[in-house]
Specification:
Blueprint: H1 24-52, H2 69-77, H3 80-111, H4 117-129, H5 132-145, H6 152-176, H7 180-188, H8 193-204, H9 206-222, H10 225-230, H11 238-247, H12 254-278, H13 281-285
Helix pairs in contact: 1-12, 2-12, 3-6, 3-9, 4-6, 6-9, 7-8, 9-12, 11-12
């Protein structure tokens, strides 16, 4: 009897990749709506970009000519160098303070059980779930009362209200993925709390800290409500200056406003690409029970 050779049972062929195809009228309708949304989004962005380099554009598909001088005019008229410096200062301080406060708070919520833990977790959620304008007005009133609003300090304090809870919520899944037995072994070897946190947990939490820092950076640069309510002439970030350029008093060439909008959109796009490069979205929601 001839022996027949067979492949090992443990080696299985990879399943064929399935293509997502619309099925039925409902599926085609959903795909049509998605396509309609992206076409309109692309058309809107393309219109702003083309208008920012257009000499004139009236009643035609394309501008009559192209020129880059509107970017120079916008840079000079709105003093974008100082605006970008202020934006970078606010974002850097908010990121640093949020990490310094949020990471230890996340560790306490992830590792410790104490009375009122659910209430504390709910309080951390409120600034993220509630629209910023609802607590931004009373917050700005308090800052103006103590003469902090209208300065960099006031803008930074206002932005810390939602960013610190955001860091806590981002870091809790990363901390829960670390086996507590590692900390117990370190304590048995004589390591103190500060040594464990800085030399053992710190290197393991670098991906989570980096993810939280980048996401807070994106959130701070794009935060309009709190910054608008607490900023002054020398402490306005790019998004507030863009709003003032659109709705403020005076006559401005629309091309300069579109040029500044392109600068803002490009900066946000770069930050988002960096965030997607270093942040794995599944890590933000995965909670591995290591206990």
């Amino acid at each position: 009897m001839a022996a027949t050779a067979s492949a090992p049972a443990s080696v299985a062929a990879p399943p064929p990749r399935r293509r997502v195809r619309p099925t039925g009228l409902g599926g085609w309708l959903v795909w049509a709506l998605v396509a309609f949304f992206f076409v309109n989004l692309f058309a809107l962005i393309a219109t702003v970009v083309l208008d920012s380099v257009a000499t004139t554009w009236f009643g035609s598909w394309l501008p009559d000519g192209f020129t880059p001088h509107w970017y120079g005019d916008a840079w000079q008229d709105f003093n974008l160098t100082d605006v970008l410096i202020v934006t970078a200062q606010v974002a850097a301080v908010v990121v640093a303070v949020s990490i310094l406060i949020g990471v230890p708070a996340a560790y306490a919520l992830a590792r410790r059980n104490f009375p009122g833990k659910r209430l504390v977790s709910l309080l951390f959620l409120l600034p993220i779930l509630i629209p910023p304008i609802t607590y931004g007005i009373p917050l700005a009133t308090v800052l103006y009362k103590y003469q902090l609003a209208g300065s960099l300090t006031g803008v930074i304090l206002a932005n810390l209200v939602p960013t610190v809870p955001f860091v806590v919520l981002v870091m809790i899944p990363f901390i829960e993925q670390i086996d507590p037995k590692i900390e117990a072994a370190a304590r048995m070897c004589g390591a103190g709390t500060s040594t464990i946190f800085l030399r053992i947990l710190g290197p393991l939490l670098v991906p989570g800290i980096l993810a939280a820092a980048i996401l807070v950076l994106v959130r701070t640069v794009g935060m309009f409500e709190l910054t608008f309510l607490t900023a002054g002439p020398g402490s306005a970030t790019l998004v507030v200056v863009l709003y003032d350029a659109v709705f403020g008093a005076g006559i401005r060439a629309p091309q300069t406003v579109d040029a500044m909008a392109v600068v803002y959109t490009a900066s946000m796009l770069v930050l988002l690409l960096i965030a997607l490069r270093f942040v794995n979205p599944t890590q933000l929601v995965a909670r591995v029970d290591a206990r």
